[in-house]
Amino acid sequence: MSTTPEYAAPALDKGLDILELLASTSTALSQSEIADATGRSTGQIFRVLSTLERRGYVFRDRQSGSYVLAMKLFELAHLHLPLRGLVRVALPIMQVLAEQSSQSCNLAVRDGRQVRVIAQVESPADFGFRVRVGAAFDIATTATGSVLSSDNPEALARAGTVQPGITDVVAPVQSASGTIAALTVPYVATTFSEVDVERVLQLTTAAAHELSGLLRGEAFTGS
Q1: Is the domain of 49 the same as that of 101?
Q2: Domain assignment of residue 198, given as a range
Q3: From CA 161, how far away is CA 179, in angstroms rounded?
Q4: In terms of domains, do 99 and 35 share one?
Q5: How many folded domains does the chain comprise?
Q6: CB neighbours of 106 closer than 8 A, spacing ≥ 6?
Q7: CATH number at residue 37
Q8: Terminal CA-to-CA distance of the chain, rounded, Å?
Q9: Which helix (DSSP H) or strand (DSSP E) does residue 204 occupy?
Q10: Domain for residue 75, yes or no?
Q11: pTM (2 decimals)?
Q12: pLDDT digits 0-9 by tens, 165-207
């Protein structure tokens, strides 16, 4: 009986080990920490890390030098039909939220030290605030970023943004593995605002819980 020969690819093994490590770690890791965790020397992983950074698979903070997983794998995953589920499941829920709140809403994920918008639904009202799909914002200066980076995944943030007259209402979207996205309503308080911000807070929380339940395969009972 013949057997298929095994061919070693050390550099590929190193790269995959690094990606799997960063994917399973919630905090940024230094080069030495990555080396220790993968059982290799810093010299062995230096070129691999540089290549992964250049190709957009990892993000390196320029001040600390630490690494986190970037969005390249997320982008690749969305080229594969079965893994487009997040946006596909989210959009109908977001459409209902926009109609109920008379405000626009968007869905964002963490991308290194940034928040990146992956889906957006327009406000049905004549006036609203639109965020472009693909737009990126500093994770440290946005309410959406505070939810995505929070140690308390059940936290719901409501805070002013750099845009006058806009209040970000944000709720976490969670899969079985934890917070994977944030649902945000950039609330515009004008004479066009038919629903007050407290009610929008309730609607956003309910929508995020519904989406989270669907991603975990749970039935949503509503409230």
Answers
A1: no
A2: 81-215
A3: 22
A4: no
A5: 2
A6: 94, 117, 119, 120, 121, 131, 133, 183, 184, 186
A7: 1.10.10.10
A8: 62
A9: helix 197-215
A10: no
A11: 0.65
A12: 788 999 999 887 788 899 999 998 876 678 898 999 999 999 9
